[in-house]
Amino acid sequence: xxxVVDSSSDGDQLLLAQSELVAALKNPHLxxxxxxxxxxxxxxxxxxxxxxxxxxxxxxxxxxxxxxxxVYCSATEQDKLREIFEEFxxxxxxxxxxxxxxxQSL
Length: 106
Known about the structure:
By secondary structure, this protein is of the alpha/beta class. The protein has helices spanning 11-26, 50-57, 59-63, 78-105; strands at residues 2-6, 35-40, 68-72. A three-stranded parallel beta sheet has the order 1-2-3, with helices on both faces. Helix 1 (11-26) links the parallel strand 1 and strand 2 (35-40). It is globular and about 50 Å long.
């Protein structure tokens, strides 16, 4: 699962993003999926620092033991996006491998 947040969002927009994020992470169909949070528009002058956004969204608390990663970037940097998706593919593979191992243990 991927979720994109505008790093230059104001407080009200972040509250809305958190509400949507909570709904997505608690959705039973998405509950066990690895999670990628993209903090977009990091190149803008009014972009908030990544740690402030992560704290505002309470991502660590929401994700629990789910595999997840966050990236602070600008979608205009295509090479960076490709790198991000390759890293996330590795997270997905790890999650699948662990799920397969759990199934085999039963």
